[in-house]
Design goal:
heterodimer, A: 259 residues, 12-stranded antiparallel barrel, 13 strands, B: 635 residues, mainly beta, 8-stranded mixed beta sheet, 7-stranded mixed beta sheet, 30% strand
Chain lengths: 259, 635
């Protein structure tokens, strides 16, 4: 019943309305006998639907190959309860004052009942950077796959029946209690070319890397690593035509932070 | 009615109720309202308040354990709060004044009192608003060691707790010369709200015993590469780790004894040959303590405030909120270490039992960090259980009870007929009483009341076995496939340590319980959770998703708890005794808090003899906050 209620709320566009605790049952019995009737102003004995906030950066880093250095961020955050969250995602790369690969998403998030460690997410993706702006509807899932893999596939749709897909995955390999080696990859697919954004049909680009960080605390871990961004297929053709490189191996240095 | 004040047998001079080292030479402390520092150790003491009227002021203060001044809550300026000494038979009045900017409350843990005095905001009352005074007033109808604490938010973590010591009306069947309260707890410099939020976002935030490449290589060396890989894959498939011992560890906690860190060396004095009573209370928020005094066996005489047949052990695990009274008799003129290590090891609480102040004994090394087993996962592996029959049914008898009779264990068992309480077996001896008045705490003068023979033979009228409305959703990661009463198992990290460790099968009440009726129905509750999301509950539901559990006033019910999680949960029911069915029959121990091990199935009987709205919850503070709570309504 809860999930249906929440779905209605979401699809009615009343995203914000669903953040508070959802009233599932009344605490008071129908006919209290002998027990004192609780006044309506009494607090709940336990507040198990606290609203929490979360902000995290998986990438907050400089990427350099010597002559060229760019700044890259990939972060996410949420506000909400166990069952209802407003989820924000943001990524982009700034090179010489030009922002590319800008992807900002605002999603509603809920646990998937039978996939114990996964949430589904639905909302809007905006390609917001120095290129032309695009808006997509987004639906996807995010969570912890068996064997501790972080895994997030998302499907995007926009006008004209254009479809895009993204798969993100990472793994935290604990070398010691504080030293972490993290392989990470992001893949993008597009059903139709979008010349304005230099995107071709099919498998378009990959961003992958291996980062090696030290957790001074759980919430603060500087890292260094190696990252590779590459474009493929028709996207690579567009890049070559624009005189841009099709692959960019980089040394990266940054910090994992969250709160 | 007797007048307790005039009863010479109840005066304090009969036995010395002493307060640690300070008791020698500082007489003022007995009635003191101040927290005294001891000159030779830096240990301090909780003040002791006696009588039948008490004023408690709850205030915000600071504590400094690590060099950082951190906000803490104190009672009458003391941390821990004052030890309240009551006398059975008295009516006590406690005026609690809230000097905090937020609501507060005091709950009397283990006390059988009217529901409106129980101190749970939302169930008993509205809580105590800032600036207000709430006056608790209730008759004390039991004796033993208990404690009190706030039931509001995370205030318990901040120091709102203290000991309750209730002198019995009758002479105790326990001989001792000295009497000390030993409160064990956990302190953190982290704000509890932050701690909770950290766990919600990263449930293994405080686990610095994760499996790493280093432990993989070590295991591969010791156990072989192939089994190590197989083991990693098996746990990894479930996204779990056997090193998941405690949600909060010494990464956040400093463990304290009577409010003192280990370095302060809280000291209790004795003269060699004396019998020393130690009232251990686990007043922590999240910590299971393994308690021992190397070189000194402990004889457990009371558990959760109730007399048990004396049992001598080297060590005992204390679930959060449990209390054990033990007697020790040091004969040598030397110091002994009171050592309390958390299940997750890493650090410890410590004090000293010594003939003189300023002495210290060797502090033993901590035991190895425990690992969860397949048995904890509810996946069998009963190898060390000696081939016991582990059907897992609550109505199965518990095996291996050293030849004890199993009366009262099964729902259709006959009572012991050679009972000295034969007079009570008149037809209907109990029926007119059930639900009219709360049954007495078992004691030397209580009588076991039996139902009419015809009713004794009856089967439970309602058995919900197999039809538990267990909700499997995001709130639950799994259901144990194989559960069993692990009452002989001392628990993870305690097996095979060469010491005699107390188990629940060792607890036999000294006096028979009053209510001899078999239960008329069973209530099965799964302890469930999703540790990755840090959601905890019963039957797959958090408290906000669940309806109260309804009990009929006067009924006799069997509760069966099935732990589907891989962590221990100390389950506490307010207002009513939980009579653990450990094979002791009519000598079942009365408890207020039951520590349920991973994949364990525990059953206990409840007499719903006091009407009200009672809290029923996991006493791990952050599990309760995450939803592991139900209301039990007796009406």
């Amino acid at each position: 019943m809860m999930s249906r209620l929440a779905l209605h709320l979401v699809f009615a566009g009343a995203l914000l309305a669903s953040f508070g605790p959802i009233p599932i049952c009344a605490q008071a019995p129908e006919t209290p006998v002998e027990a004192p009737t609780p006044a309506s102003r009494w607090p709940k004995p336990v507040e198990d639907n606290r609203v929490l906030t979360f902000v995290s950066f998986d990438q907050l880093e400089g990427r350099t190959n010597g002559p060229n250095t760019s700044f890259r961020w990939d972060g996410q955050g949420w506000i909400g309860t166990d069952f209802n969250k407003l989820w924000l995602k943001s990524e982009g790369t700034v090179t010489n004052g030009i922002t590319s690969d800008g992807d900002q998403e605002i999603l509603y998030d809920r646990p998937i009942p039978y996939l114990r460690y996964f949430d589904w997410q639905a909302g809007v993706r905006l390609d917001l950077d120095s290129g032309p702006t695009r808006a997509w509807a987004a639906i996807g899932m995010q969570g912890l796959a068996p064997y501790f893999f972080n895994f997030a596939p998302t499907l995007y749709v926009r006008d004209g029946g254009r479809v895009a897909g993204r798969i993100e995955g990472s793994y935290d390999l604990y070398l010691t209690q504080r030293l972490i080696l993290q392989p990470q990859v992001e893949l993008n697919f597009y059903s139709q070319a979008d010349r304005g954004r230099g995107i071709g049909t099919g498998f378009s680009d990959l961003d992958g890397g291996v980062r090696f960080g030290y957790q001074f605390s759980r919430k603060f871990a500087p890292y260094i690593g190696y990252a590779y961004s590459g474009v493929f297929g028709q996207t690579a053709t567009f890049s070559r035509q624009a005189g841009q490189p099709t692959s960019a191996p980089r040394l990266v240095f940054g910090v994992w932070v969250w709160r | 009615m007797r007048t307790p004040e005039k009863d010479p047998s109840l005066t304090l001079t009969r036995r010395r109720f002493v307060q640690g080292a300070a008791a020698v030479g500082i007489a003022a402390l007995v009635e003191g309202k101040v927290t005294l520092a001891n000159a030779e150790t830096s240990a301090h003491e909780a003040p002791v308040l006696t009588g039948n009227h008490f004023d408690l002021a709850i205030e915000a203060h600071h504590l400094n354990f690590t060099g950082r001044r951190v906000r803490a809550l104190k009672i009458n300026g003391a941390f821990p709060g004052p030890t309240l000494k009551w006398r059975e038979g008295d009516t006590v009045t406690i005026a609690v004044t809230n000097h905090l900017p937020s609501e507060t409350s005091i709950h009397w843990h283990g006390m059988r009192i009217p529901t409106e005095m129980d101190g749970v905001p939302g169930l008993s009352y509205a809580g105590i608003a800032p600036g207000q005074t709430f006056v608790y007033r209730f008759p004390v109808r039991q004796n033993g060691t208990y404690w009190y604490h706030s039931h509001s938010g995370f205030q318990e973590q901040l120091g709102l707790w203290g000991a309750l010591v209730i002198e019995p009306r009758d002479k105790e069947p326990i001989e001792y010369d000295r009497d000390y309260v030993v409160l064990l707890s956990d302190w953190t410099d982290t704000k509890p709200e932050t701690l909770y939020s950290n766990l919600k976002k990263q449930s293994d935030y405080y686990n610095y015993h994760r499996r790493t490449t280093g432990t993989f290589i070590e295991d591969a060396k010791n156990k072989g590469l192939r089994p190590t890989i197989a083991n990693r894959l098996m746990w990894g498939r479930m996204n779990m780790t056997p090193t998941d011992i405690a949600d909060v560890t010494n990464a956040a906690y400093i463990y304290t004894m009577n409010g003192n860190p280990a370095d302060a060396n809280w000291t209790a004095l004795f003269v060699p040959g004396e019998r020393v009573r130690l009232r251990f209370i686990n007043a922590s928020a999240m910590t299971l303590f393994d308690v021992r005094i190397p070189g000194l066996p402990m004889t457990v005489v009371r558990a959760d405030g109730n007399y048990v047949q004396p049992v001598t052990v080297d060590e005992m695990r204390m679930g959060v909120a449990e209390t054990y009274d033990v007697i020790v008799q040091p004969h040598e003129e030397k110091a002994y270490t009171i050592f309390a290590q958390p299940e997750s090891r890493g650090s410890y609480a410590r004090g000293t039992l010594a003939p003189r102040l300023g002495m210290a004994a060797e502090v033993p090394p901590m035991d190895p960090y425990p690992n969860r087993t397949m048995e904890d996962m509810g996946m069998g592996g009963m190898a060390h259980m000696n081939g016991m029959q582990m059907g897992g049914m609550a109505s199965d008898q518990m095996p291996g009870m050293k030849g004890m009779q199993l009366n009262g264990m099964t729902d259709n068992s006959m009572p012991e007929t050679k009972d000295t309480d034969m007079t009570a077996m008149r037809d209907g001896a109990i029926e007119p009483l059930a639900g009219k008045t709360p049954f007495s705490q078992p004691g030397p003068h209580t009588t076991r009341l039996m139902p009419q023979p015809s009713r004794m033979m009856s089967r439970p009228t309602e058995t919900r076995e197999g039809e538990v409305p267990l909700h499997v959703g995001a709130e639950v990661v799994g259901v144990a496939m194989k559960t069993s009463p692990r009452l002989h198992d001392p628990g993870d990290g305690l097996n095979g340590n060469g010491r005699r460790v107390l188990t629940y099968s060792d607890l036999h009440a000294l006096y028979k319980g009053v209510d001899g009726r078999p239960p008329t129905r069973e209530i099965i509750l799964h302890l469930t959770g999703n540790m990755e999301r840090f959601i905890w509950g019963f039957d797959g539901y958090k408290v906000s998703q669940a309806e109260p559990i309804q009990l009929k006033l006067g009924e006799r019910v069997r509760f069966i708890l099935i732990n589907d999680t891989m962590m221990e949960h100390p389950i506490h029911l307010h207002g009513l005794w939980s009579e653990l069915e450990n094979g002791s029959g009519e000598f079942s121990p009365y408890k207020h808090t039951l520590l349920v091990k991973p994949a364990e199935r525990v059953s206990y009987l409840i007499s719903a003899d006091t009407p009200g709205r009672w809290a029923f919850h996991c006493h791990l503070l952050y599990h309760m906050a995450a939803g592991m709570f139900r209301t039990v309504e007796v009406s």
